[in-house]
Amino acid sequence: MNTRVYNAPLSDEKLQQLDLLLRDLDEGHIEWLLGYLSGWRAARNIAKCEYGQGAAGTVELTILFASQTGNTESVAALLADKAKASGMTVKVFDMADYKLRQLKNERYLAILTSTHGEGSPPDGAMDFYEFLHSRKAPELKGLQYGVLSLGDSSYEYFCQTGKDFDARLRELGATAIVSRVDCDVDYDNAAEKWMQCLISTLSKSSRAAAAPFSLPVLTGTRHDRRTPFLAPLLENQLLSGRGSNKEVRHIELSLGSAGLRYQPGDALGVYPQNDPELVAQLIQHCAFDPEQIVELNGQSCSVREALMSHREITMLTRSLLKKWAELAQSDALMKLIADKTASAEWLRGRDVLDLVRAFPLPGYDAAIFLDLLRKLSPRLYSISSSQAVVGEEVHITVAAVRYQAHGRERHGVASVWLADRLTSDAVVPVYIESNKNFKLPDDDDAPIIMIGPGTGVAPFRSFIQEREARGARGRNWLFFGDQHFRTDFLYQTEWLAWRKSGLLTSLDLAFSRDQAEKHYVQHRIRAKSREVWAWLQEGAYLYVCGDADNLAPDVNQALLDVISQHGHKSFDEAREFLRDLSRDKRYQRDVY
């Protein structure tokens, strides 16, 4: 196909070359190419840490992002594109890479941050956070800023890092040109409105000669959080042995010609469905007509479909309690909410069915009820495969969550849906969640130490597959643990084969219930403290994946003990040593 192109920025020769390259592509290839070019463009822009070179506008906007999973980085890239389209000059920095002394020179600043754990800054934001809250922080009377905070309202310290940044910038004399927005797990619409408000305000205040506020329109489907790909199920295999207290599954999905690309350390976003039995009980208790048609975000669906696929019904938040208390005019619920400790205890392990049973409100409309509930958010799973090995597939490792609480059996939304209710011809709505903060070293000769008990071992399977495919010569050491060797040694055959081949240099195991005294990975780290310190001195990269509440602090303390003992350092010196490793990307954590 020879297409006449007017006002093209390419020469005739390059246009002919492009035409030759594209003429034999089918629709699947074209969709893949669009996604590839979009990702390549975003990656190049982030790598350069600047956008809009040569823009004619007068606004110079600096965007700082800090993220544990990659969400804020994606929003930062989108904000940069929008700002550039409005005629601004834009610089984008991961907060961990930002030169702190530059802050006093900024005029326009956008901060996008998540909150880690119970109100802590993400790892990459720690230096900036401490600098900003220290006596070294400069006066910022000439700075105009905006803060976008991403979080999860089910946590007590919802969006705390963003709140802290906002308050401290005001204390230092800076002026907020837009109000801070605290986004819940379903952040897309709120983030979009905040970005539009920020750019509109900046454009007006500067009278910048901006281009029309628009983005180039690309045809074809680019699969992302808003437009997930329907991935066919290939394999759903039970990993746990007979008699295990756990149910862990290895799941393989086909990406086909979707054009989705991932790297070791990335996560797979999965859009699940709620338990049909729980949905039926909720509909029955509330006396809803399951076939009643309602409007959700401009789309029509039945009440049953809304509760199955579009609304969060297994997780309660204080925000929902407050809305329900106002609607039900319940003094008892108001009293419960007023006591933070009591309400937090009541929320633990309960769901929406518990709420409507405990504090009944007869005769309310299904549409009003659905508007109270959060959107059903995707669940993230560490990818346990390397695309260099499995091609157009993606593998995840899923522990089915089942437990008894408050007189009923409870199920994890996504984990039990994946484990129990997927038929052989099922498709799973998925997207790739990039995580630049959990990546293999660029140097294939660098040694790595991987610490991942339970399903925390998932990304390390992808790490080793990738290193084997690349012919990496760096040494690899895995610390793995679970309850029992016989039933819970996940991917045992693969790990032992890699150990035998020499690809896995060291394998240390901790099975907590195979002896009278419980034994965990942090105990193995201390037992091998001399070797761990030697590897660190030789440039090893440390990786930790798993539980944020128990594993992460216990392993962190074990590492501090190793550094203190063999590095002959005080506690503060050991902590600073570990912080230096983190700054150098040699201590990376994917904890949840």
Question: Could you explain the architecture of this structure?
Answer:
- The chain folds into four domains: 146 residues, Flavodoxin domain (Rossmann fold), CATH 3.40.50; 100 residues, Beta Barrel (Elongation Factor Tu (Ef-tu), domain 3), CATH 2.40.30.10; 97 residues, NADPH-cytochrome p450 Reductase, Chain A, domain 3, CATH 1.20.990.10; 144 residues, Rossmann fold, CATH 3.40.50.80.
- The strands form five sheets. Strands 1, 2, 3, 4, 5 and 6 form a six-stranded parallel sheet that branches. The chain has a six-stranded antiparallel sheet with strand order 12-9-16-7-8-13, covered by helices on one side. A five-stranded parallel sheet has the order 19-18-17-20-21, with helices on both faces.
- It is of the alpha/beta class and 592 residues long.
- It holds the Pfam family FAD_binding_1.
- One of its GO terms (biological process) is cysteine biosynthetic process.
- Pathway: Sulfur metabolism; hydrogen sulfide biosynthesis; hydrogen sulfide from sulfite (NADPH route): step 1/1.
